[in-house]
Amino acid sequence: MVDSAGDALPATQVDLRREFDEVGIGEVLDQLDRELIGLKPVKTRIREIASLLLIERIRKRMDLASGNPTLHMSFTGNPGTGKTTVALRIASILHKLGFVRRGQVVSVTRDELVGQYIGHTAPKTKEILKKAMGGVLFIDEAYYLHRPDNERDYGQEAIEILLQVMESQREDLVVILAGYGDRMDKFFGSNPGFRSRIAHHIDFPDYADDELLAISELMLGDMNYKFSADARAAFVRYIALRKTQPLFSNARSIRNALDRMRLRQANRLVADLDRILSVDDIMSLEASDVLASRVFSNGSGG
Amino acid sequence: MRITQGCFSFLPDLTDEQISKQVQYCLANGWAVNIEFTDDPHPRNNFWEMWGLPMFDLRDAAGVLMELTECRKVYGDRYIRLSAFDSSHGWESVRLSFIVNRPKEEPGFRLERHEVEGRNIRYTTKSYAVDRPEGQRYGGS
Q: Which residue of B has its CA nearest to A103?
C-alpha cells in the first residue's frame, strides 16, 4: 500500500531532455527532416504538435490534466506534395508519444466509406472506423464524400457518422482529411461541422526546382541508381520544362519520370549485348536516358 | 439464478475496462471478436444471434466496445457475449467466449423429471424465461 501511494504522487520535477529522449521523438523528427525535402510549413507545424504532445504528456504526470488535445487534421495541397507520406509519419509520432495506442494508418477514399444502396453506408463506414480505432484514419480526396449536386447521395450519411465518432471518440482515433486545396475549401464550406472539429489545417506548398532535384536524387538513392554529371544537368532542365507543362504533379511526376528513365537505361544497356558491364554502368543513368524524354521535344509528357 | 457460461462467469461482472483488456488480448492473438446476444440462455443453446458481422482486421478494442455499446442500447435486457474466433489452421474455432451483459432478473432453470419405463427418470432443464415469447422474456418490450 505504501509503495503504490508513493507511485501515485504527481511528479513535481521533470527532466525535459530525458523525457524527450525517452519517447524517441527526436529521432522521428530528424528522420522527417532528412527524408522529406522542403515542406517548411508542414515540418514547423509537426514540430509544434510534437512539442505540445510532449508537454501534455509531462503535464499529465504532474497531474495538470487538461484533456487530450484535438488531433484531427486536414492536409491540403497540390498532387504529389507528400500528403500521404506525412500522414504515415504523423501516425508514428503520435504513437511514440502515446496519443494513439496502435499507430496503424488506415487509408481510405470515398469508395470504402460510402455504400451502394440504402442501409449499406452505415455498416461500411463503421467497419472502417473500427479498423482505424487506436490509430489514424486517413481519408484521401475527402471532398468526394460530399456531392452537392445530389442531395440523396449516401456520402452525407458517411459524413454524419464520421463527425459523430470524431467528436465522441477523440481519444481512440485521429482522422486526417486530405485533398487539393480549393476543393477542400469548398468541402469545408458546405460542411462547417468538419472545419470546426479539425484543429490543424496544414497546407502543403509546391516544391521548388532544387527541392525536386533533391527528391529525385533521394528516390534514386533508394532504388540504388545515380545520375551521371551530364544526366543531372539534363534533369535540371527536364524539371524546369516539365513544371510548365500541364498535369504536373510534383514528386509524383518526378517518380514517373525516373521510372521511365530506368526503362530507357535498361533498353540502352540491352541494346549492346557484347560488352562487360560494371556495377557503375548498371547504376548510373546517362544524359541520353534523360534527354530522350518527350518533354524536350515539346510533347505533352506524362 | 446467475447464469455461469464461458470464461470469467464465476467472477463479478466485468467492467468495460476489463472487457476492453480481454478484447485487446484476443486481438493481439489475431482472433476475430464477435458480439452475440440471446434471450434463451439454455446451456445447450449454441446458436446465439450475431450482432453485425464478425470483426476481422481490428487493431484496437475501442472498435469492439463501440459495437458493444450499440448492442447494449438495443438488447440491454438480454444476454450478450463476446466470442473470439481463431482462424489459424488447425484451430478454426472459438477460443474464448464470455458474457458481457445479462438481464437484471435471471429467473433461472427448473428441473423436469420425466418418468419412463420402470423406475427410470429422465431429466430436462428448462428456463423459466423461455415460457414467454421471444422478446418478452426478460421484461423487454
A: B59
Cα–Cα dist A246/A148, whole Å: 28
Residues A200 and A280 in one domain: no
Instruction: Determine contact: A134 vs chain B, CB below 8 A.
Output: yes
pLDDT at A68: 72
DSSP state of A292: T
Question: What is the pLDDT, as a whole number, of residue A8?
Answer: 58
Our count of domains for chain A comes to 2
Specify whether A41 is located in the same domain as A145: yes
- Domain boundaries, position A256: 209-297
Q: Check CB contact of A294 with chain B, cutoff 8 Å.
A: no
Q: Indicate whether A62 and A172 sit together in one domain.
A: yes
Q: Mind giving me the DSSP string for A76-140?
A: EESTTSSHHHHHHHHHHHHHHTTSSSS--EEEE-HHHHS-SSTTTHHHHHHHHHHHHTTSEEEET
Instruction: Name the band, by pLDDT with cuts 50, 70 and 90, for residue B100.
Output: very high
- Residue A5's pLDDT band (cuts 50, 70, 90): very low
A257 and A191, same structural domain? no
| B130 inside 8 A of chain A by CB | no
> What are the tens digits of pLDDT across the range A215-247?
999 899 989 998 999 999 999 999 999 888 888
Whether residue A179 is found in the same domain as residue A262: no
Nearest to A131 among B53, B58, B61 (CB): B58
The domain that contains A281 carries what CATH number?
1.10.8.60
pTM: 0.82
> Does the beta-carbon distance from A134 to B59 stay under 8 Å?
yes
Check whether A302 has a pLDDT greater than 60.
Answer: no
Residue A302 covered by a domain: no
- The whole-angstrom separation of Cα A181 and Cα A189 is 12
CB-based contact, A135 to chain B, within 8 Å: yes
CB B58 within 8 A of CB B109: no
Domains belonging to chain B, first-starting first, are 16-105 (3.30.190.10)
ipTM, two decimals? 0.82
According to the model, what pLDDT value does residue B135 have? 83
CATH number at residue A131: 3.40.50.300
Q: Tell me the chain A residues in contact with residue B62 when contact means C-beta distances shorter than 8 Å.
A: 133-134, 169, 172-173
Average pLDDT rounded to a whole number, residues A85-107: 85
Residue A116 falls inside a structural domain: yes
Residue A298: is its pLDDT beyond 70?
no
User: Max alpha carbon distance in chain B (Å)?
Assistant: 60
**A123 at interface of B, judged by CB pairs closer than 8 A:** yes
Q: Looking at the structure, tell me whether residues A101 and A188 fall in a common domain.
A: yes
